[in-house]
Amino acid sequence: MTPAELEARLLHRDGLMLIIDKPSGMPVHAGPSGGDNLERHLGALSYGLRWPPALAHRLDRDTSGCLILGRHPKALRKLGKLFQEGRIGKEYWTVVLGHPAESGGTVDAALAKRTDARKGWKMVALAPDDPDGQRSVTNWRVMGRGELPGVGPVAWIACEPRTGRTHQIRVHMAHIGHPVLGDGAYGGRPPGTELPLQLHSRSITVPIQQSKPPVTAIAPVPEHMRTALAACGWAGEEPAEMAGN
Predict the structure, then answer these.
(1) 3-state helix, strand and coil shares in percent for the chain, rounded to the nearest 5
(2) 3-234 CATH choice from 2.40.50.1020, 3.30.2350.10, 3.40.1010.10, 3.40.50.170
(3) Residue 12: is its pLDDT beyond 70?
(4) Which of 60, 108, 129, 183 is catalytic?
(5) pTM of the prediction?
């Protein structure tokens, strides 16, 4: 990723934070095997400060959309407190397998990490009060339903995670019988399909300053999700302020 390409993904900038549109397929930090990652490129967004911005939270490698960066240590501490207190609003768009019977609901299922010597690790859903897991809550609502050639029935879902656990939306959607399309780890990749993970951090709202209204950023729908969303009724419209993206 070139500095110009990264800067083109900037959704918001102020003295405390940046919000960028993270591309799908790029990890936010280096894994055990190394390789390219977003942190390697953040120096391009210093904008005159002597340090690069740093991650205020995480997105999975294959999840796209809104990602917050703190511009200096004090800002990172403030953002960390807002996340800890649950004061940052997040909405994800996803396309899942099947048609949910309900128009929406809440998934309240604790999450725990399980490791297999052959298959590696994954998260599992437990009872809400299971002491072996972390309390995890996701609100969801159906935005549209449709059929995708080669896949079958699919639904466009808006999710609002009330907690921020690893793989939370992916596991919670699978837990209610509607895994995220393209998610091979949790049952969302039908045989013969190769679609990328259909999960996008659509918007984020941050009350970064008490004296000002909260900041809301909206990330445009990525190219790899447009076909599936259109099959569910998405008309391709974006907010006017995003017309240049």
Answers:
(1) 20, 35, 45
(2) 3.30.2350.10
(3) yes
(4) 60
(5) 0.94
